[in-house]
Amino acid sequence: MKKVQQGFTLIELMIVVAIIGILAAVALPAYKTYSDRAKFSEVVLAATPAKSAVELCVQTGSVTAGCHAVDDGTNGADNGWAASDLVTTVAIAGTSAAPTITVTSNMSVGTVTNATFILTGTVASGTIDWTNTAGSCGTAGLC
Hints:
Blueprint: H1 10-45, H2 48-60, E1 87-94, E2 99-105, E3 108-109, E4 112-113, E5 116-124, E6 127-132, H3 136-140
Antiparallel strand pairs: 1-2, 2-5, 3-4, 5-6
């Protein structure tokens, strides 16, 4: 009478553990990148009130230096954004033809410390087009 095999052999179990280990080694760094990008979305959203303020100035035709200087010393409380765990500052600068919005974060990813998100506007015919330019978030792979 033959003995019926019950359960798995040691080599089969070791193969399964090795496969799970390889999958985990690939998945954890990908999850870390995904998690960092999700956190950085808060930094990107912090630029929205500043974008709205500049767009309002452009649409009403009152594009002056005052529209681009929104640092009133209140840490953003009066400007539609507030400092948080991830957002340090939101600064509006540039010229009336090319305003810039710079959002500085507390995030550090790889070699990038305090990643920045920079939007540059191009004003033409009463409208403004925004482009993401030269912020360190691109180097860190966050935006």
